[in-house]
Amino acid sequence: MLRSLLLITGTAAAFSLTVGELAPLHAQEAAATSSSARVDEPLHFTYLGAAGWRISDGNVVVLIDPWPSRLKYGGGGHPDDDRPDFARTDLAWSDTTLIDSVIDEADFILVHHGHFDHLGDVPYIARKTGAKVIGTETTVMILRAYGIPDDQLYAVGGGEDYQFDGFSVRVVPGIHSALGEKHYHDSRRYDRTTQLEAPLRIEQFIEGGSLSFLARFDRHEVLTMGSMNFIEREFEGLEPDILLAGINGSRLGLYDFDRRLLESTGFPPIVIPTHWDNFRLPYDFSQQPNIERNLIPFIETVGTLSPGTTVITPIHLEPFTVR
Ligand SMILES: [Zn+2]
Known about the structure:
CATH topology: Metallo-beta-lactamase, Chain A
Largest sheet: 8 strands, mixed
Low-confidence stretches: 14-35
Order of helices and strands: EHEEEEEHEHHEHEEEHEEHEHEHEE
Shape: globular
CATH superfamily: Ribonuclease Z/Hydroxyacylglutathione hydrolase-like
Distance between the termini: 14 Å
Number of helices: 9
Number of domains: 1
Bound molecules: zinc ion
């Protein structure tokens, strides 16, 4: 399929180890993948921090778990960060000025699960952009509580494969990161009988089950992760050419995570680490500890396990493209 047609441009690869040869997109194949009404552009990526992304092929703008607010909540902040502290019992709040400076438009928002660092800004962004939101029933119930109209909302459970105008997405069942030294487990769900009144408290943004997405653009198929976990049999056979790999520290408590992830996804030509940062810090704070703890060992492991893979290390808000 598209696996040999990759070329990366932009500033995001500053920390990456590049391995393998990349060939430019062949003109004939480029023509074959575009229809007359559609533009044929590289895939544009911007990392929004945590598990958040803006991805566009020039035809559709897809946001994934967009959370620019990066509130200091539930501990884990930085002493030099003089923004207010939020407890989990506090009302959720979005930094709309910051969001407006980062996000202009969106056609789709894919939400991996309902936790605050994934869904917290989606009520505002969905209202602002009118984007269609795809997520669990729990996610949809939270957005309904915020008054997002039903025709923007798609509740999914995993297994759906939806064709939209110029974009298709397969919903992949997932599991959440093994937080709390593997003691985390939350089976709560919201459904149509749940009474929710916005604004919610931060703690009311419950997981509600976890998903991955195979987002299909003209030139590329991107498999997304919102957690440091996955179900191997659900990834097998998808063969994305770009993998957004969740690589924060909790993955180290899982059996042979990096190898199983690369193997089950068919050793993707491009792997982009996601959810690796300290998401309670503002954008302009150093992420050096997380770079050293999460990124560098992962890049080295990928270089050993999958020498044909290029790892792109994203920098907050710095766009890059994959041809
Ligand atoms: Zn979560």
